[in-house]
Design a protein that fits this description.
It contains 5 helices and 21 strands. With about 325 residues, the chain is mainly beta. The relative contact order is 0.06. It has a 21-stranded antiparallel sheet that branches.
Length: about 325
């Protein structure tokens, strides 16, 4: 997460003894950004510390009002692939946590989050359930390797009062404000990435993504469909850094697929209150847009509406039709 201030950690006291069972018992007292810290628990045995493998731990920490407990086994400290255990994070006020860590505002409410890791044959099952303030999370799935992530299957479910609060944690400043709800599934098997009914609603705006990328992260060979609609276009034009203040209801329908000749074709149909636009583009074989070709026809009732939206001085109240080929590179 993006921090508003550096973390200042001070260790006042650290005690450690080895018990008869070979595990080490430790206690640490100190401060984190001026807030009291008290961490105690067991870990080991010594052989696991020396080999950096199969380390057992059972630790509880108090960071001001924030409580963190972690128990389980880490299979490899250098490259964990299938650790098992549970992490529980609780606190009475999310503002105590954001203030202590220098995080952006996350609204109000408490914190109660449980993260579980459990090996299941060749995979690792993951579960993330709980709430951060008024933001609710209930997601889970499995991975083949926690580091490589070559085979992943995840179910997504989250909702809350303001998506921009979550986005700011990761340094994203232009995400539209408003309540949100996320659902759907994402899976990966090697170079194939699948999206299954991934739905995101932000206020009255809705987005749905379905399909697959067969050569991830390359777009060639992809089969994707995207639908976006809403009542306030301006919130999304500013999100993508587009000029002007185009407002009002909008709908965008996109399709990326391989045609009968084996050529990757992108089609976008966009409708707003001042313009209707269709883009049909063939993608180049190289990554990115180099070698792509596009045809972009558009029309609307009054060209002045488009001019005003993009801050272009013009005074013609005339309908218009536009069509021009584009070829990047």
């Amino acid at each position: 997460p993006a921090l508003d201030q550096p973390l200042e950690i001070r260790v006042d006291r650290l005690n450690q003894v080895q018990n008869s069972d070979g595990l080490f018992e430790a206690k640490l007292l100190g401060t984190l950004n001026g807030r009291k810290v008290n961490v105690a628990g067991e870990y080991g045995p010594l052989e696991s510390l020396l080999t950096a493998q199969n380390l057992m731990l059972d630790i509880a920490g108090q960071f001001d009002t924030l409580s963190v407990t972690a128990s389980g086994l880490i299979d490899d400290l250098v490259r964990p692939r299938q650790p098992r255990g549970k992490i529980q994070i609780t606190g009475p006020d999310i503002n105590d946590v954001t203030g202590m860590l220098g995080l952006s505002d996350m609204g109000s409410g408490d914190l109660d989050l449980t993260i579980s890791l459990q090996p299941n044959k060749a995979d690792l099952d993951i579960s993330i359930v709980g709430r951060i303030g008024e933001h609710q999370f209930d997601s889970g799935g499995s991975v083949s390797d926690l580091i490589a992530l070559d085979r992943v299957s995840m179910r997504l479910s989250a909702h809350g009062p303001d998506l921009s609060e979550v986005a700011r944690l990761f340094g994203l400043q232009k995400i539209p404000t408003g309540s949100y709800q996320l659902s759907g599934s994402i899976s990966r098997d090697g170079s194939q990435l699948d999206f299954d009914e991934v739905n995101l609603a932000i206020g009255a705006a809705k987005m749905r993504l379905d399909g697959r990328l067969t050569q991830f992260p390359d777009l060639n060979g992809a089969d994707l469909s995207l639908n976006i609609s809403g009542e306030r276009l301006g919130r999304f034009t500013r999100l993508f850094g587009l000029p002007g203040v185009m407002e009002g209801p909008f709908e965008v329908v996109g399709r990326l697929e391989v045609d009968s000749d084996g050529i990757e074709v992108l089609r976008l149909d966009a409708t707003t209150k001042i313009v209707e636009l269709t883009m049909v583009s063939t993608l180049g074989k190289e990554s990115g847009l180099l070698g792509s070709r596009a045809r972009v026809p558009g029309n609307g009732a009054h060209i002045i509406a488009v001019a005003v939206a993009f801050h272009v001085p013009i005074s013609l109240f005339l309908p218009y039709v536009y069509s021009r080929p584009l070829e990047p590179g």
